[in-house]
TrEMBL record:
Protein purpose: Ring cyclization and eight-electron oxidation of 3a-(2-amino-2-carboxyethyl)-4,5-dioxo-4,5,6,7,8,9-hexahydroquinoline-7,9-dicarboxylic-acid to PQQ.
Homology family: Belongs to the PqqC family.
Record-linked InterPro entries: Haem_Oase-like_multi-hlx, PqqC, PqqC-like, Thiaminase-2/PQQC
Protein name: Pyrroloquinoline-quinone synthase
Gene (UniProt): pqqC
GO biological process, one term: pyrroloquinoline quinone biosynthetic process
Pfam families: TENA_THI-4
EC number, as in UniProt: 1.3.3.11
Catalytic activity: 6-(2-amino-2-carboxyethyl)-7,8-dioxo-1,2,3,4,7,8-hexahydroquinoline-2,4-dicarboxylate + 3 O2 = pyrroloquinoline quinone + 2 H2O2 + 2 H2O + H(+)
GO molecular function annotations of the record: pyrroloquinoline-quinone synthase activity
Pathway(s) the chain acts in: Cofactor biosynthesis; pyrroloquinoline quinone biosynthesis
Length: 252
């Protein structure tokens, strides 16, 4: 595994920077996590699948909020016009006709109560801390760093392409309707990643800013990895679920 801490020390060309950013994803994106491998191999229990959907909802729900903070820091109207599509994708026209609502449908199709999922009260503490750290990063760091942190979307179509066919094949209680959230995501993620990558490459005009972009993407990969770490620890073995977190009997 590479140490990306000083990858841009001597400065990088645009193509070299893009190659490093893609290498971050190849080595650190959460499709490499054991929990994901267990999911795609058909090894997750129904409780683990429910816990994944419930905890991931916290992340889905914060996406338009972090994007709103990015918009607040953007002075360029053209940038804002492009970026606000992300909020529309997740909130829809009325708040409940976009990606968040489709994720909630995924969770309820797995047998979870909608109000319990939306309350986020049964999420793992580590999930809430990770999601909060991501929102804080996008609120308090520079616009450039916040945009760079979104570049995990370059790798989103890959993990969806691994996850969806495996879930449909390996879990008889999961249907195409259950996974309707993922129908639009590859196209949306590719569109958004192309815009963000072009922005980062055009603004990474010093070695320092190039390293900031790399560090921001590493940070975001760490957020996603930590969320699966928490699920793996809590639910793969009995006795590790924290007080107050999801258990099958609490999600109704």
């Amino acid at each position: 595994m590479s140490d990306f801490h000083d990858a841009a020390r001597n400065g990088l060309s645009f193509s070299e920077l893009e190659a490093v950013l893609r290498q971050v994803g190849a080595e650190r994106y959460h499709n490499r996590h054991p929990f994901h491998h267990r999911m795609t191999s058909g090894a997750l229990s129904r409780t683990e699948m429910q816990a994944w959907a419930l905890n991931r909802y916290c992340y889905q729900a914060v996406i338009p909020r972090k994007d709103a903070m990015i918009l607040a820091n953007a002075e360029d109207p053209a940038f804002r016009a492009a970026w606000r599509k992300r909020i529309e994708d997740h909130d829809g026209e009325d708040g409940w006709s976009g990606g968040i609502a489709r994720w909630l449908h995924l969770a309820t199709s797995l047998g979870l109560d909608a109000d319990a999922v939306k309350s986020e009260r049964l999420a793992l503490p580590a999930t809430r801390f990770a999601v909060g750290a991501y929102l804080s990063f996008c609120t308090n760091r520079t616009l450039f760093e916040a945009v760079a942190s979104s570049l995990t979307e370059m790798f989103s179509p890959l993990i969806i392409g691994e996850r969806v066919p495996a879930m449909l094949a390996k879990y008889d209680y999961i249907t195409e309707d259950t996974l309707a959230y993922f129908t639009r995501r590859p196209e949306q993620a590719s569109r958004d990643a192309d815009f963000a990558l072009a922005y980062v490459l055009s603004h990474a005009d010093t070695a320092e800013r190039q390293q900031q972009a790399i560090d921001a993407l590493v940070f975001k990969c760490d957020i996603l990895w930590a969320m699966l770490d928490a699920l793996q620890h809590a639910y793969a073995e009995p006795g590790n679920i924290p007080p107050g977190a999801f258990r099958p009997e609490t999600a109704r």
